[in-house]
């Protein structure tokens, strides 16, 4: 028996169920081939591509260090390679949501293997709950987060994690047949760095997580989203660690666990309703007549809306590949509500730019903002970007961090620039010249959205 183990996006050597699978086969399987199909990225996703290549390189080097060789290839060559190797079956993760292209996901790949006559065995690797089990008392999928959380929170318990010796794996894994050349990159993360960051978060910032979560000028949250997107940390470890520390600070730990259950909820939802990747979850909002102004979309993408808080957030995204959660909510509401641009446009842009891109969390985050999703914000509770700015960045520290042209200006002038046009001019910022005028009038946009949604 010869088995192919596909390690796509599960870039960790410890507590990796795919590697544990190999160890469990010792004796019954003759030989194993490790395969990493390499993802492709377009020009618009260069920051993300660089992070991916750097992380993948580091992972391959670590495997090599333990004399474990992998076959790295393009997705296009995957089936031909497996046929050539005369594999009896392949084993792969069925629960990865962070691929750059939908066609890399489990349902698409499974179909390709089946058409080629190769058996597929699926393992749960990146998520805690199983979409096949998480139904409500009526046997239906959950549509509301609170009921999902109430029902499944008690099932977050200390769980056994996969253990194995890497030396055993090297005994059964065949040498590489395909070249393992990856694009050079100085970006990316290693499993070791992720462990250090996570332990440091547990020792420090989690103690104030509830308030830190809304603090803008600095990232005081865990940034675990990046590690989870590349399989650099085991979700069972994350929950086990949280349960260990829980009693030291229940409310902050619970707030954090709740967010991780949000990730689970969106994963389960996306698996049960895959069509929501492209269409509104709520049927009545499937035919919204979006304005979809291409020029306005470009202004939003480039951080030229004339609303400093929105522009700062878009700069953060474009320059770092990350955006604070509050700002993801503010910028997505601005695009869908203030500009009436289809949420799928914004979702695609975030996919290209976010290093921590996760299809389920991104799609449902966007649908929440657009009021088209499950549990979504009601359309009449539209964010006012000026109020959000005053409330979450009162001293304009975040704005100034990302918009250096506004650095010298009095902070209180930077929330409502239209109102303070004259004072801004006195401080060297002429709207329309040194910094854009607000591209839309929020009050007008609000009326437009209200009447549109009411009419549906
Ligand atoms: C429009 C929009 C798009 C988003 N796109 C993504 C995305 O592509 N990838 C992604 O991982 N998250 C996404 N989120 C959720 C959230 O913004 C990020 O998970 C969070 O900002 C990541 O930073 P962190 O790891 O420091 O979070 P922390 O606050 O430290 O949270 C810990 C973990 O909980 C989970 N989590 C936290 N908030 C949410 C949430 N609102 N929804 C689902 N899971 C959550 C994440 O796994 C996160 O790593 C999106 C939210 C919105 C509103």
Automatic annotation (TrEMBL):
Which prosthetic group or cofactor does it need? FAD
User: Where's the Photolyase/cryptochrome alpha/beta domain?
Assistant: 1-128
Residues at which FAD binds: 209, 221-225, 256, 259-266, 356-358
Instruction: Name the residues annotated as site: Electron transfer via tryptophanyl radical.
Output: 290, 343, 366
Membrane-spanning regions, if any?
none
Q: Does the keyword Membrane apply?
A: no
Q: What is the UniProt remark on how the cofactor binds and its stoichiometry?
A: Binds 1 FAD per subunit.
One short Pfam name that applies is: FAD_binding_7
Q: Does the keyword ATP-binding apply?
A: no
Q: Which GO terms describe its molecular function?
A: deoxyribodipyrimidine photo-lyase activity; DNA binding; FAD binding
Q: Name one GO biological process term.
A: response to light stimulus
Query: Record's SUPFAM superfamilies?
Result: Cryptochrome/photolyase FAD-binding domain, Cryptochrome/photolyase, N-terminal domain
Q: Which UniProt keywords apply?
A: Chromophore, FAD, Flavoprotein, Lyase
Q: Member of which family? A: Belongs to the DNA photolyase family.
Q: PANTHER family this protein is in?
A: CRYPTOCHROME, CRYPTOCHROME CIRCADIAN CLOCK 5 ISOFORM X1
Q: What is this protein identified as?
A: Deoxyribodipyrimidine photo-lyase
